[in-house]
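Collaborator request, handled under Task 6.
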Amino acid sequence: MTKQLSIDEEMKRIWPAVRVGCFQYNVDVKKKNEDMWTYLKKDIFKKTKDAIFDYGVNEIPNIKESRMAYKAFGKDPSRYRVSSEALIRRIGQGKGLYEVNTVVDTNNLISIESGFSVGSYDADKLGESLIFRVGKEDETYQGIGKDEINIAYLPVISDSEGAVGSSTSDSRRAMITEETKEVLTLIYSFSDNKDLEKAMEYGKEYFVKYAGAHGLECWIVK
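Structure tokens returned to the collaborator:
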């Protein structure tokens, strides 16, 4: 069943440009897609390094707007980096990227190319209704490969059980594993431009090509 996602009115009041791009699809998660990694290293790494040279990381389009939104919500974007910025900084520092699985790796490719934070979640581990909102005072969850993450004032995605992910770092509850069969991928946009629509187009292509997505649905929540 297609997930129902809405954006909290208070979040929209603070940052009116907020939107979320959504993909829901079925998949057989694999360990690695060699073609994707070839494309990433040959093309995207170079474009990313050029963007860092041209703008500086903090001023890259869509990272810049995300950092501004974080400040408006009350979170320091230099302490809690938007995930796209963290990925792009790794590339700029020559550290490369972690290889996780075909869904997460494709997720990260879209994030690096677009400058938007992108999160992928095991749809079976989520409630039917989701809301994108600002994290509450003292709110935390267990991060992937991390201890408790302080998600107060971060943009978070939440269901009836509580927050499950954010545009900085996701929780363990709905993380993608090789047992995952249905995925919800979200592109978190704080930009008032057409880059989200572009990312939805190539994102759809990438998930089919590199992650083997099928039965794919796409929509944008405003």
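The cover message to the collaborator said: "DSSP finds six helices and ten strands in the chain. The longest helix spans residues 34-55. Please let us know whether this matches your experimental observations."
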